[in-house]
Queue: 3 jobs
Job 1
Amino acid sequence: MADEQIDREKDAGDDRKESGSFNTAGTASHGRVASTTSAGESEGEEPEDRYNLVYLTMMLHGIGILIPWSSFITIAVEYYVCFKLRKLTPHGGEETPYARDFLKYLATASQGPNLLLNMLNLFLTFRGGLAARIFVCIIIVCVICAITMAFIFIDTSSWIGGFFWLTMVLVVLLNAANGVYQNSLFGIAADLPPNVTASIMIGNNLCGVFCAIVAMITRAASTTPEASAMAYFSVSLLLVTACGFSFMLLRRSAFYQYHVNKVGKEKRKGGTSKEIQDDSDKRTTEEIFDKLSDYYEVVKTGGVQLLNVWLVLFVSLAVFPAIQAEVRPRDDFIIPKEYFELITSFFSFGFFAMCGAMLSNWIQWPSPRFLVVATTLRLIFIPFFLACNYRPITRRWPVLIANEWAFIVGGALLAFTSGYFASLAMIYAPRVVAPSKSRSAGMLAAFFLVIGLCTGIGFTYLEAYVMENVGPLKPLQLGDATGDMCAAFNKTA
């Protein structure tokens, strides 16, 4: 009945082994180390998070979770659609089926494995607990980044189909690893103070800001597709590597050990665990049902917060980036067309979502009871953005909101409420359940976050179909989609 407790005991036990001389300042005797460790395990005074090490480390991991995938989607059109997957001809580039459908395949290959591995991570127990899973996932992500960088220098024009499917395999592995990484990280954060969970959300959104800035710089500098891809994936590799080393330091922190051990003690007091034994690779039916029982208790007590997590991410992904990035400005608007979607969609969403997540550190309103009212009201964003100048050439519905500034303000509100309410829901989920269930609640909330991502992305297909096939108007003539996109990149190059 104690898989969650086994994970927590393994994490805490490994941390105590590794802490050794790191728990004390300067040279310490063996006895002093022991007393420091026992203090961390007791219910004494809470150690200080010196230099905000734990907070900043979790923020770094918030960036590290998303930076490789953000690099893939940011560079997808310029590098994959318009370069690697486009057939070279004497007259220039020619569209291939792989280029035309790349973005659809990319979305499918990303979210399916992410959802599946998040679900499996809820039930499977591994030696070393959640910390070991994080280290393994970081290694996998680093290897994928390195392989992707290596193919920048390889001519794949003679085997475009093979390169396409190899890329899909890498995307599947990347998102599977990221799914376990994210779920495990939120599980650990659930044992720590609420602002630590908020720091992960801040890191997630800071990643979006960073990628948007890099995209604007590379576009303004007229870099080649290869140079742009190398810049993105080099930075991704460095940041994910830094996450691995920072996690080693995190586990040696007295602040971290104190909270992990404190929650473990609450688990034992609650009488929900059996004698802790080495798992010995057993995956019994009883263990599965015990975990299901834990998750049932979490859903019964904190189900509304899980609904809030899903609602926030569903609405956000139903609009951003698929709908928001395809809203077009007038020719004479102050922001040039080639930078419009980067500034008003990608940069704006990342920046304001980060601001919202940061605000949750100081203001936590509405309360857990009434947060669902706010998250439900956000559904109004979906018809709002569809009423803007979305896909003006192919839409069959009239444009009701033609003003670009209304679109920009709406985008800022969408992003800010996404960061703020998502952080609140992730903070509330482990706090409204018994302390012994906090880690289960954190992991389940992360799972609902991914469900929100998947359902939001899936809903964009329905939105596009309705806007282009159901309305009363006749669409304008549409040219080659990928050809138009690549022409825009060639103009800035």
Job 2
Amino acid sequence: MDESPEAAVDNDDLVIIVENEAESLPAEEERAKQLGGSLGLMDTCPVCKLNFHNREPKLLPCLHSFCKKCLPPPSRNLVNTEQRRDPQLQADNSKPREILNVIRCPVCRQECWEVEVLDNFFVKDSVEVPSSTVEKTSQVCMSCDDNTEATGFCVECVEFLCVTCIEAHQRVKFTRDHTIRQKEEMSPEAVGASTQKPVFCDIHKQEPLKLFCETCDRLTCRDCQLLKHKDHNYQFLEDAYRNHRQHLENMTHQLQEKRKAIEEVSNCINNGLQQVDENRKSVTNEIKKSICNLIMEINRKGKILVNQLETLTKDHEVGLKKQQEDVSHLTRHLDHVINFTKWATASHSGTALLYCKRLILCQIHYLMRANSPPALPPAGPRSDSSVNVRSIKSCQPNDNGCVLDTAHSISHIVISLPTFREFTGPEGKGQEGCKMAKSNNSVEKKPK
């Protein structure tokens, strides 16, 4: 939303009251510590690395902000889904199809419609509203030039007024129906929300957005509320700000609880990766020790076992690393939304908070619905090889039964001729299950 020239407010005329400067300093320092990590991200463009001051900051639905010049161009175009589903609109060629541009956030790669991009009034307010305690020591009348101390506040005009201006305000026909509140009735949050630079309606250029339509869930001006939003439930800006700020704080607390659960899943995955690595090393050493005591054929089988082990552990490790990447991405997304919501709720910017409330709630609900990936249990490596390593390892040179058992466990075994004769006996029994090789020193025996 572009601001009209009437929306310009001099910073010299904007002063906020504090009861005690010494008491306000610790509160500001504590808030600065809480938001210190997020403010650097919120007030600086991630593309050009420059401050948003006078650079028309834009806020994407993913809650990342960019300068207007750094806003990414549309990555693709799509036809409006309502037009695609309506057969009458498809048959009516006289009506042009609405083309919606899709842009992708350079930070999180989340896509959104270009029409969903909003002005970042949080940053605009932060650079335009005075923040030093010296400027907040007193509140003067914003209607006259006498620098008289203000005693009341006009809700419709969003101005502090002195006694004389209040009387004139109630006497003039155009402003006699305005709501005048005493300065003492205004809470610090309401004062902060009411004294910010007003945002004017797109339709009624002279009317500021000072109402919040609860039915439509959006900011409205007085004329829009009386005409387009007639009979809708609405609240004044400061009242809606207090209510919805508390709701967003509660939702942020739920996100923090979910982040703790995600962190536990991440720790479990790290432990699983470590256990897989230990199992791989342990089994690899055992296999290598067994291979050293086997003949050439068993040595070849042992190498196959190692390769199979590496394959199994690698697949499991790849799965765990993929889960770790997903969890890290979700954690970064949770951190960003939590920091942004904390920063938004602590900024005392009622207009900006309500203006962007739907975007914030959309991200919060999106993250609340996101499923936490369960941690895979560390799978101990195993081998499907038909070689019985323990039986072969315990085989003695003259143990004929062991050699026969081993022969049934592998494809074939080569034994010497004397050993073959011991197997078959003097009568030559069992020779039909053997295949004689050309060598005179050995027989290749293949079990049936």
Job 3
Amino acid sequence: MDKHVADVKDRHYFEDYYLTKDLAPSGGVLDIHCKAKTDCKGWSESEPAKAKISTNKRHDELVKDFTCLFLPNGFNCSWLPVNPSEKLKVSYRVSGKTKEDIQSLKVCENPYPMNGKCGCELHTDKDREIFVLVETKKRMNTFIAQYAISVPQMSVEESGSFLHLTWTSPNVGQKCTWRTCVWYKECGKEKFPKCFDIKTYERIPVTIPYNKCCRYEFQFNTTTDRHCTEVSSKTSDVITHGTTTPCLDTANVAAIVIPIIVCICVALSFYCFKKHEHIFGSTKLDHSVIKEMFNFNKLPRTRLYVPMEIIDPPAVPSSDHEKDDHQQSSRPQIPARQQD
């Protein structure tokens, strides 16, 4: 860079710090150039100068899923080694560019194995990010630790046709807004997930519709919003509420109950008329009428007969002779008297 600013009397120097994990993809080479903050006539951006950043050990991924759980007196960190047979050294320090911060590198304390993972304890400032260094004899791995909290406790309460969900407040991030996402099943059917933003100091319950005939299964997790350092919890175990039972809605209940009530009323009416015949008079009810009423719908149905209109045949004119013959034939004949 000096050759590009050789004509400048007062030289300015600056320094900055980078995590080596950010330099690993570029092979530890930085392109550095300068440009004016404001548009000045005749000023242009400088040619980039390359700076090589070298390390004593090769960068490589040595661990996965490195998370630090908040504790009252520090952190409990755990990770999954890429090669379980390889011996790792884990160190840490708080973020910062001061000499004191840079020299605050410490070795992780009280290491322990746990269900295929490894862990240790960190004792440092909770309000600052943690830089982690994992190394072997020939390789190294640097990154920022991911924070985590224990899964908050959730309570479920019935309130009429709704369920109220509430959570215990995390013991960190008192000024943060926590985003809690809930996914659940209703009668075995998955419902659309719901996410809610909740302040730490708020105890406002989250409300969802409730069907008393269904069994509910809940799972959730929580994380800070974008205005705070990212802290999240694992997904909770399944929390159940209620049982699945057969239920009838109002329409089905009415369709079943109303006919029963009508039949009972009719039977009581017959009983009252029979018991109080001296008031209503003797009533002889033909049982065949009742039977016919119940069997009416079972009788075969035929089409209704419609009588045809009677049409007289047209009169045909005839001669006088035919009329006389017709009149004679229509007269009664007297039988001839027999001769003795």
